[in-house]
Amino acid sequence: MTESIDEAEIIDGNAVASDVREAVAGHVETLDAAGVTPGLATVLMSDDPASETYVSMKQRDCEEVGIEGIHVEIDADAPADELYDTIDELNRREDVHGILVQLPVPDHVDKRSVLRQINPEKDVDGFHPENVGRLVAGDARFKPCTPHGVQKLLDAYDVETEGADAVVVGRSDIVGKPMANLLIQKSPVGNATTTVCHSRTEDLEGKLADADLVIAAAGIPEFVDGSMIKPGATVIDVGINRVDADTEKGYALVGDVDYDSASEVAGAITPVPGGVGPMTRAMLLYNTVKAAGLQHGVDLDLD
Q1: Catalytic residue among 61, 102, 123, 290, which?
Q2: Which of 16, 22, 151, 255 suits a disulfide with 237, CB 3.0-4.6 Å?
Q3: Given 12, 58, 122, 151, the catalytic residue
Q4: Which of 12, 61, 123, 125 does the annotation list as catalytic?
């Protein structure tokens, strides 16, 4: 599963995601035996090409593991009520077990209202306030896909989190906050002493220098470099940013970590692309089959 380089062990997200998808396909077979076909509805209210690509990839992922994909497109200029009515309809549909509204939504639509509109039992992103509260309480229904994917990577590569000093760089609702909550909880991939850093943090370098585990999710290209990292630390790069480059496409994808310098210091590191990104998509499938099992009383033995 791993590749060896002179500097650091590469944490291969593609390989771990493949294992997750294989497990999900097995759960789909279990559901099928119980007369249930798991269904994921994606809703797109955007003209952004990147959002269109993300949704297309998620629908393709569903097809590959046997999940029924339902896709709804809404004109970006349509009234907000059209999106809310669509969500209400999907909430009522028995063949839809998970609902994902691709973010961002247009400025005239309130994102928080959208997230609250989704039935929390179908909120496979884990962003509904009820699901956020359950996560914080240590009784998660659905763990948000990216933080859960990071946990799966750490587990797959036997990264010891118990008693470790972890630093999460970034405090977003999607990654930073739930990631910190998962790391501090009493669980096999938890029990870490966790610090959350952000744009107002003083002496970020000092805090990173003591970290056994660094999770970079600041949304700033190559923000963390090798000089900030403790030798032998595990570095998980959640960022994916487009930067101008002399390539055929005119850009390159880089993370929030300067990979070249960090890989010379870290004990293990995720690449960009090929690290956390594939895990986010795989965990969406995981949450969808979990939702189908919960809604139909089929025990899939999932965390």
Answers
A1: 102
A2: 255
A3: 58
A4: 125
Cβ burial 183-214 (10 Å sphere, 16+ → b, else e): bbbeeebbbbebbbbeeeeeebeebbeebbbb
Backbone angles phi, psi at 255, to 5 degrees: -90, -165
Measure the CA–CA gap between 87 and 80, rounded to whole angstroms.
11
Span 234-253, pLDDT tens digits: 999 999 998 988 888 888 99
Check whether 1 has a pLDDT greater than 80. Answer: no
In this prediction, residues 136-141 reach a mean pLDDT of 96
DSSP 70-101: EEEE--TTS-HHHHHHHHHHHHH-TT--EEEE
Distance CA 230, CA 237 (A): 15
Q: Return d(Cα 186, Cα 188) in angstroms, integer.
A: 7
Model pLDDT for residues 21-37, shown as the tens digit of each residue: 999 999 999 999 999 99
Q: Is the peptide bond before 273 cis (omega within 30 degrees of 0)?
A: yes
Q: What is the pLDDT of residues 42-72, one digit of tens each?
A: 999 999 888 999 999 999 999 999 999 999 9
Q: What angle do CA 249, 253, 254 make, to 5 degrees?
A: 150
Q: How many CB atoms lie within 10 A of CB 121?
A: 18
Catalytic residue status for 125:
yes
- Does residue 102 carry a catalytic annotation? yes
CA distance 214 to 175: 13
211 to each of 53, 125, 208, how far by Cα in Å?
35, 29, 5
Q: Is 208 helix (H, G, I), strand (E, B) or coil?
A: helix
Is there a catalytic annotation at residue 143? no
Distance CA 131, CA 133 (A): 5
286 with 293: CB under 8 angstroms? no
